[in-house]
Amino acid sequence: MKPKWKDRGKPENVSRNDGGKRRRDAERPEPERSPSSQVIYGALPVLEALRAANRRIDKVWIADGSREARLSEIIELCRSRSIAFNRVPRETFAKYLDSGVNHQGVMAFAASVEYVDVDEIFDAQEAEPLILILDGVEDPRNLGAILRTAECAGTDGIIIPERRAVGLNDTVAKSSAGAIEFVKVAKVSNLNQIIKDLKNRNIWVVGTSGDATMDYTEWDWTRPTALVLGAEGSGLHRLVAENCDVLVKIPMYGKIDSLNVSVAAGVVLFEAKRQRNI
Predict the structure, then answer these.
(1) Which of 38, 85, 134, 236 has its CB 3.0 to 4.6 Å from that of 112, i.e. a possible disulfide?
(2) pLDDT tens-digit series, residues 16-73
(3) Percent of the chain with pLDDT over 70
């Protein structure tokens, strides 16, 4: 049953264990990556993927010379879930990762993260929802940082456009520090239609803009709300901004007139949670 939100009202201001025996990489075939597979690298992203257990992990590689203590929980989770884990030469990682990537000596081959249907975000919430819409974020590190922030702030889900925006790739997974395993992300063809759907569900749509007259702290975030953040540099598209119920701004006190989009997400989302926890 779909939740019935209260009336929006009118705002005041609009492994493998072989007893320690190691097999060199040359002695076994390398795993083939299909279009539906993903490489996860870094101790925390791999650990969170194993903890979440919401997608298939085919194999974990640990680089020779990596510290055992740091990776002990990863190894134990692999054993408990019967996931193959092997030690390989560090040079082998270079076949799958870009030069200079900080893989921290561990890499996993997993099924790709799947997007959810947008209705799963709309319909699953029982309390006042807090949804995040990203209008064309293109930097994968920004998206990863936003995923981490959204998860820590308890956001109900993220909606991104299909075109002119980054999707859920390996770099996003790494930058999210494991949050990609827990945050619902929907990809849609038309953000403006989604905004209309949200309004029909009595969810307020609040965009961010440096030209807004209302500070972000003035909005009543206890209402069911969808926060819309724009692309790096250009901000919200004109029509998206026009379709928002209200625009808010984060005041700037230095000489630079804007924040990185991932930082802006943290500022506003945690203000929303602060108000809701009063």
Answers:
(1) 38
(2) 344 443 333 333 334 444 345 688 888 888 998 898 887 888 899 999 888 777 788 9
(3) 85
Q: Are 246 and 113 in contact (CB under 8 A)?
A: no
What are the backbone dihedrals phi and psi of residue 86, each rounded to the nearest 5 degrees, phi first? -135, 150
Q: Which of 15-24, 155-164, 170-179 tops mean pLDDT? A: 155-164
CATH 3.60.140.10 fits 25-111, yes or no: no
For the chain, the domains span 25-111, 118-276
Q: Which residue has the tokens 């092997």?
A: 86
Decide if domain 118-276 falls under CATH 3.40.50.2300. no
Sequential DSSP letters for the chain: ----PPP----S------TT----GGGSPPPPPPTTEEEEESHHHHHHHHHH--S-EEEEEEETT--HHHHHHHHHHHHHTT-EEEEE-HHHHTTTS-TT---TTEEEEEEPPPPPPHHHHHHS--S--EEEEEE----HHHHHHHHHHHHHTT--EEEEESSSS--S-HHHHHHTTTGGGTS-EEEES-HHHHHHHHHHTT-EEEEE-TT-SEEGGGS-TTS-EEEEEEBTTTBS-HHHHHHSSEEEE----SSS----HHHHHHHHHHHHHHHHT-
